[in-house]
Amino acid sequence: xxxxxxxxxxxxxxxxxxxxxxxxxxxxxxxxxxxxxxxxxxxxxxxxxxxxxxxxxxxxxxxxxxxxxxxxxxxxxxxxxxxxxxxxxxxxxxxxxxxxxxxxxxxxxxxxxxxxxxxxxxxxxxxxxxxxxxxxxxxxxxxxxxxxxxxxxxxxxxxxxxxxxxxxxxxxxxxxxxxxxxxx
Length: 184
Hints:
By secondary structure, this protein is α/β, with parallel strands linked by helices. It has one domain (2-180): P-loop containing nucleotide triphosphate hydrolases (Rossmann fold, 3-Layer(aba) Sandwich), CATH 3.40.50. It has helices at residues 2-10, 25-33, 52-58, 95-102, 116-130, 145-155, 171-180; strands at 13-15, 18-20, 39-40, 44-46, 77-79, 106-111, 134-140, 159-163. The strands form 3 sheets. It has a 3-stranded parallel sheet with strand order 3-1-5, with helices on one face. α1 (2-10) crosses α7 (171-180) and α5 (116-130) runs parallel beside α6. The radius of gyration is 16 Å and the shape is globular. The chain starts with a helix and ends with a helix.
């Protein structure tokens, strides 16, 4: 959802390098936008809905960082991760290693739930430890200002968008949310 919103706002090219399971995120974005935006195919598509390392192992394949080269695109580019920062790609590498391989900043998406403050701060600390830039944060769900203030202070960046709890998600809702993003 956040990748779709960012893609819409930036008129960007969308790419999810690794997809595990169906329906694919690419197919959902195609459903919302059709040919209005450029969408690149996954480098690795695995039919098993699991973490990339497990899906690859089950499907008798292997994911290596050397498999990936950031595609050359014109204009803005939104690259979507798979699972979370420390989700393994193989026995040695994680999504964080892929981010470093691409040399891209991260948009941290924080969903509010019991325990999300700890989860978010651990992610911020790991991003900082690895020297990965946090470009901005998107908060999703109920507004918990106290928790958000703590996360923003630790992340040393701004909130780009707060997404309320949504009853439905379609192209109009995505467009409305995209118009609300505040990069500065």
